[in-house]
Amino acid sequence: MLHELRRRGFSSHVFEAGTDVGGTWYWNRYPGARCDVESLFYSYSFSPELTKEWVWTERYPAQPEILAYLQHVADRFDLRRDISFSTRVDSVVFDEASHRWQVSTETGRTVTARYVVTAVGCLSSAQTPAIPGLDSFRGATYHTGQWPKEGVDFTGKRVGLIGTGSSGIQATPVIAEQADRLTVFQRTPSFSVPAHNHPLSPETIAAAMERYDEVREQMRHSPGGTLIDAADKSLLEMPDDERRELLERAWKTGGAGFVGTFPDALVNREANKVVADFVADKIRSIVNDPAVADRLIPSTYPIGAKRICVDTDYYATFNRDNVELVDVGAEPIQEIVPQGLKVGDRIHEVDAIVFATGYDAMTGSLARLGIVGVDGVRLTDKWAAGPETYLGVATSGFPNLFMLTGPGSPSVLSNMVVSIEQHVDWVADFLDRLRSEGAVRVEADRVAETEWVAHVNEVANHTLYPQANSWYLGANVPGKPRIFMPYAGGVGAYRERCDAEASRDYPGFHRK
Ligand code: N01
């Protein structure tokens, strides 16, 4: 966004809480942290030179490599001179008289700006559950999303890991290798698909580069911002051998696109069950102890309704002698005591606790900005019953404010880089338009917003997503309203909707 604004001659400044660029890939340094979108396409496409000069080493990039890439981007485009690091914004207040925002930081600085663009991420407000006795624990505690920069050495340590979503599933095999003992506390099992990660050969990269522009363009118009080799008919219409072959092929391909291979798996419970049963069988075939395998198999929600996880050796890790799975679904962690975690009558003694317990997703970080709009209304009050946006980029009553990958946009249901680039271009085009007509104030129309929110809900209700207690619905945060937050209509359809808004000269916004 900064690069694009600069390119178009806007004066702009970025505030960043971290000491460096990287966002998710700056904070998430936990063992095993890796992206589950392929590196060649989890990278920017706005600069052909950048694409050519950066050489990815693996199919799925590990956190250090993505962070190095983002640092390279910052250096290459000389971005740091307009970024204030170690600077957390704690208040963003609209001034009616000047139609400008007052942005204040924890470091005591206040600036005013015509426009504010939030780029705070969807999964950046780490959630540590309020388990009684946490302060009494005598060992170290870590959250995967706030991992120490210097790293953590678990050699010789007994580690307790809470949470079995994407982060916990990536961290488990790596911590198990290093630690003396690992106890995994699982409340709800996740479905996980093998990554089949591998180094990228120069030939693979060269072949990808030959069709790069064409493939990127297809991604921009695809459902999830990635290309998936989806079947052309339902699993339910296939003879048994064809169905089996397709499932096996998808499992061998691996990765987050697994469920997307089956066109009706996310809308038809019966088709979904075929896929879920297949994965359950795979888990049983990997895990030696049938009782442990059973505990690892999800049974309470459709596959894909919670974010599918992608792993390297997750299930096999439970065959190790130094790893124990504790089911805290039926019987929660009662208390944390100085020497460990108490579940039922048993105290699990540990030297360190890893919280892989997720985030106050999509709205958490926006809430923490302290945004106050027209008539002194707080964004948190306006969104008390759930986020309301127009196209996921703006919200009525908060003029001159744009959100990148905000609630109501495809964001977390897509390849984030594709969605970020689309929002950046769309917002920059709109700002250009506003500048050219001399506007000082732009605000989403309340009726357009209400219709968009209804559409977001309607689309979600046609899918199986609402049938899981996921962070997509805010179900992981006590007291958070149960509203499906991302837009499930697909990146391509969403782009068309945004483009139509622009080509019709932004009918869903008021300007003056
Ligand atoms: O967080 P999560 P995450 N007691 O919310 C459990 C992206 N991501 O950091 O399901 C016990 O998914 C909770 O249990 P339950 C990706 O989009 C991507 O793992 O609520 N357990 C759950 O098991 C992902 O979806 C990548 O019952 C407790 C876990 O903690 C998103 O980030 C890698 C608990 C939280 O899982 C978030 O993933 C990592 C308690 N009191 C993340 N409270 C890749 O690209 C919570 N839990 C690969």
UniProtKB/TrEMBL annotation:
Family annotation (InterPro entries): FAD-binding_Monooxygenases, FAD/NAD-bd_sf
Enumerate the SUPFAM superfamilies for this protein. FAD/NAD(P)-binding domain (SSF51905)
Q: Which Pfam family is an annotated match for this chain, by its short name?
A: Pyr_redox_3
State the UniProt keywords alphabetically: FAD, Flavoprotein, Monooxygenase, NADP, Oxidoreductase
Entry's Gene Ontology molecular function annotations: oxidoreductase activity, acting on paired donors, with incorporation or reduction of molecular oxygen, NAD(P)H as one donor, and incorporation of one atom of oxygen
Provide the cofactor list for this protein. FAD
Its family remark reads: Belongs to the FAD-binding monooxygenase family.
Name by which UniProt lists this protein: NAD(P)/FAD-dependent oxidoreductase
What species does this protein belong to? Streptomyces mexicanus
